[in-house]
Amino acid sequence: MTTKTILIVDDSASMRETVKIVLAASGYAVIDAEHGKEAIERLDGRKVHLIVSDVNMPVMDGITFLREVKRMPRYKFTPVIMLTTESSEEMIKRGRESGASAWLTKPFLPAQLVLSVSKLILP
């Protein structure tokens, strides 16, 4: 079985590290970025099976990043989980309209994240 690669996008270094530890322990390869613009640069043609992104970030926020990803032919079908403190119905609606596959709020349970990832990444 080939290792599946996940891109984590969050301006919090500790949150990126926490998510990386959880996903790596479940057998995923992880790359990360501090904000949406950096994440776009990471999407350089390599296969990324799933993206986990925060919403509130400097330089490029998560919703703008999500819209940009969905415009990229190689990544437009890549599932995106928004992992954020945002929980308003309005923000969740904006995320879904922009192409988010799932919405998890922080703080999160590691098992909840792994379950969401496993449902969205094809075996």
Quick overview of this protein structure:
The protein has helices at residues 13-25, 36-42, 62-71, 89-98, 110-120; strands spanning 5-9, 29-33, 50-53, 80-84, 102-105.
How many structural domains are formed by the residues? 1
Query: Portion of residues in helices?
Result: 40-55%
Provide the low-confidence segments as ranges.
none
Query: What is the architecture at the second tier of CATH?
Result: 3-Layer(aba) Sandwich
Number of helices: 5
**What are the secondary-structure elements, in order, as H or E?**
EHEHEHEHEH
- Tell me, what's the shape? globular
Question: Which strand-content bin applies to the residues?
Answer: 15-25%
The name of the CATH topology is Rossmann fold
Q: Any idea what the CATH superfamily is called?
A: Response regulator
What value does the average pLDDT take?
93
Question: Helix/strand/pairing class, anyone?
Answer: alpha/beta
Question: How many E strands?
Answer: 5
Sheet with the most strands: spatial strand order: 2-1-3-4-5
Radius of gyration, whole Å = 13 Å
| Multimeric state | single chain
Q: Main sheet?
A: 5 strands, parallel
